[in-house]
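Loading example: each entry is read as three labelled lines plus one structure line.
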Amino acid sequence: MSLFGIPLLLADKNATFWFPAKASTFAEDVDSLYMYIMWISAVFFALIVVAMVWFAIKYRRRPGYEGDSRALHNNALEIIWTVIPTMIVVWIFAKGVYGYMDMMRPPAETIDVNVTARKWNWTFQYPNGAISPELHVPINQASRMRMRSEDALHSLFIPAFRCKTDLVPGRVTYMWFKPILTGEYDLFCAEYCGDEHSNMITKVFVHEDADYQKWLAEAAKPPENPVAHGQWLYERMGCKACHSSEPDKKIVGPSFAGTYGTEQKMAGGKAVKVDENYIRESILEPQKKIREGYQNASLMPSFQGKLKDNEITALTLYIEALKDGQLTDDELGKNDDKAVAPK
Amino acid sequence: MTSHAHDSHDAGHGHGEHGHNPFLAHHFDDPEQQFDSGKLGIWLFLVTEVLFFSGMFCAYALYRSLHPEVFTFASQYLNETLGAFNTGVLLFSSLSMAWGVRCAQLRQRTGLVICLAITLGCAAMFLGVKAIEYTHKWDLGLLPAGEYISQFLQPAHHAGISPWLYYLSAVPALCVLGFAAWYVVAVTTGQKRTAEVAGPLLVTALCYFLGVFVGIAFQNAEAASKAAEHGVAEHGVAEHGVAEHASVAHDEGHDHAGDERDDVMLVSHSDVPVVPGAPELAAVDQAGGAGVFFSIYYCMTGVHAVHILGGMAVLAWLLVRATKDHFNEEYFGPVDYVGLYWHLVDLIWIYLFPLLYLIK
Amino acid sequence: MSAVATEPTHSHYESNEADNFLINSKGVLSWALTLDHKRIGLMYLVGVMSAFFVAGILALVLRTELMTPDQWFLTTQQYNQVFTLHGAIMVFLFIIPSVPAALGNFLVPVMLGAKDVAFPRLNLGSFYLWVAGAIFFLSAMLYTGLDTGWTFYTPYSTQTRGPVVAATMGVFILGFSSIFTGLNFIVTINTMRPPGMTWFKMPLFLWATYATAIIQVLATPVLGITVLLLAAERVFHIGIFDPAYNGDPVVFQHFFWFYSHPAVYIMILPAMGIISEVMSVHCHKSIFGYRFIAYSSIAIALFGFLVWGHHMFTSGMAEVTTIVFSALTFTVSIPSAIKVFNWLATMYKGTVQLTTPMCYALSFIFLFTIGGLTGLWLGALSTDRHLHDTYFVVAHFHYVMVGGTLVGFLSGVFHWWPKMTGKMFSEFWGIVSCWFVFVGFNLTFLPQFVMGSRGMPRRYARYVEEFQDLHQMSTVGAYLLGLGLFVALGVLLHSLRSGKKAPANPWGAATLEWQCSSPPPFYNFQSPPTVNEPYDYLPLVYRDADRGWEYVQQTTPAPKPVHV
């Protein structure tokens, strides 16, 4: 792109110079208040700059001109230029409050999506149990985000929807919106959370209702190939955040690569074989056995009630298939043409 | 804080009226201006101290309103008698300090030295009692939230003097020895002024131990009375001994064999309201939730104790100056300002005591 | 006008050269252990400008990395450490101390006709606390690199590796430097005003300094306890801020911003004080609306304590709370607007000299107005939900802190440079520097408003491609800005070597500091200064470039202000 050219590369054709697409009901209100403040400010700014330049020129020191250095005062003027700005900011404040209260009060009927943020990815869980790393919402219906953070502060920001709310560990926070434009929009983390904060980006997809239902049904269906299913779960249930699939890469807990079938030493001295039983126990009662060297790591939460038996099997098969961290297409059943390898 | 300079860099040009007062700083026109400046200065400093503590008072208010049952429960581990004793000690020290200001104003040199010595001694006694309180809690596992050991899970622990106390008392013990030696040397070599400083400092260091003994005495008395009231206190022994918590200091060979006097749980289960609080309280406590009270307790009393120590250092400096006859009716500012500071330190304790010790 | 010009009074300004405070005593120790407020001020000046230089280079590093959306030469972790360092050094080591400690220390006693501040040893102590804090702070951050951002939000700051405790203890020490400076100024201004100088006969720079000092004394202790508790959280897990121990991260934000919002008024009020002085002097016109400007300084200081929540509108606070904070935030904007209008009115019917200080002052008005107005977008709740934590905020605070405080600081440095050093500087190159700074600054930060409203979040080492053009524009501007600042520095340093000797009163100002020689003797005044109206220029007449402006005897008192 040319260096000083007007930025022409827009995220989507609906964006304007100042704003992203007006993709939610909030956008109109926010953008219009933004522009009102813009115009008011422009007027005052112009007045100030013009006065400044005018006075600097008109009263400049030059031969033959003698200014009057005596003090001037004008109480009426002082009052006017106090009262008028006050009235203006009160109006701006009021308009801001109305817009805000609308943002804070979701309608009675909303589609609730559970959002989990962790360093450094998002997980969205839909009402039918489907889980996705991206946000899918239907057009013209209110969606409400029910948000939790697993570690640090995060913030869910969708510029096209003009809304943003922090995710605070230890609490649940909420945010609602109603999309009005189909398309694909950016979703950013807007609260600094460490190394990969700027990569904690995902997408929001606004669907027509029929498409949305179709997507939802598909998303609830895991891949048929069990190994691919295991990988699918690995990426959606939060395992990925703490257990790497690459050999020797430790995130919080032990890496899965090449671990299946090996003997591992536990804290307290006992050696245990990593097999189906051990994996199952680690998922359901993680505190029962802790690997040597991981006594001080953050505790793994239990997945009792969160993973069904067939899902635990799938995960086990996936872990078994992970030898050196690379899974062949065969193993993923790609050639079965059904399983989609998630990104 | 104040700047009464004997500085050498004034050339005494045209403003040299400080003939009669060697402590009038060159940049002040007269002693009144210097005194007013110092007074305003110390008041501003006290305002900053109030704001400094206010953060912790806010944290206290917030967490108490969020977890009132935790605060009520945990507060019972604080010995009210010791707290009250300490309050009395500090109040008395404020009295001796105020008296000291008066002595300075009236040029009563000996009086001033005695008053400063009493103030210092009271401060040291306060710290001695605090040392007992702290070390006793450390033994019981009453630690900040992250390290807190649940009182419902705690296996048996001991009575008697905490080993931590020996570590804490090392410095005061050294002070006693050092000041004693200094005093003896000063007296035998006839240095009266030095002896006048060394003596009070020796007494101060000894007062720390006096405070320790008072603390032990009160604590034993309370344990005895509690044991008498409740018989053998219950131990909250957990079914799964949580391994990490086994490393409590009491393992280091203190004799609790056959020790019937169980000041183990200063609060037995029967002191805690059974319905509806108890099961929740136990859960909260076992999850470490009660630790937040002790976090706030240690932060507030700890920062307060640091201010006592700082005050003691400044008082010692005043003591030295007093023995050198610096103070008189025209120049007593420093004593006045330190007095104000000391009153604030006392006042803060007056707030801390009911807020921490007297929660029912 | 009925002042009768008679024989010029015997000049106050001839002095024994050897008494000049810069040379009256020699050697490193005579500076290191000085109690002379003027020397302390100059040491601060060198210190803060060095800190500014370091943090400025870091800013250029950041902007250079941001030329491309993907990684260029910094890993994300390094980027995070660089923006933390940039922010922390700028806020704690440069902006907060800059005007009060560097210029204020020099000027406050002299403007009062006094010989020193109330507590000279405390003053030197403040300086060394600054140095200690700086060493502590910088070495902590450079040792293993701190990546929490200058705001230290929990729980990231309790979880991350890195010297959080050491850095926060550095901040703690620096806080005391600030507190003691403020305390010193309050007492000095309260008790050491000369006879005849009532509150409303003080120069406005002193009003601004006083208001700033109030904030320093009241707000900074809260920062102290906050960082102490943060350190305790990390070391002892006290469970106040860390959710892992049942603490609440939002409580940290409340504690932190309770200080840090008033802190921004510590940053801007002294610069506004400078502008009041510079505008009046360089327009040779008594300040318009003296009392309004004075009262607005106090109003800003007080209201500034009530608005900290506007940094936390999206943090999950209750609705009522956010609404109250929003309302209060708008109240704080009004006094600043009043000042801007009064400054402009000061130009009316004056005699405007476009000197370097005046150019910077006019830049200040332009840039600070933009900065202040953009605060309106952020104070309004609905727009803030979109703009919070985006580049819009970054642009806003740079407009007020750089376009406001830095530009005001430069205006002041140029204005008082002849007084402090006894040298005049090159006006031509001074004005050149002003233009480069002005153009470069706007080019750097105007695009960032657009980026922000388009959704570019802040503290991002990588970004989506659509923002690249704007980022590149911003980077070019940053280099221009840097260049302008280098020119400014060059002008000042060059003047030390080859500048013309400055007269006592080169600009024709009426405040007391111009009644002594340039530079002043170490005892400040050869003879007791005459307390007068600080903005009454009638008794002053211009002689020539060598003698500057001088007082002539007045046989009638200064006329009362004329109603327009």
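Chain C touches chain B through 48 residues (CB under 8 Å).
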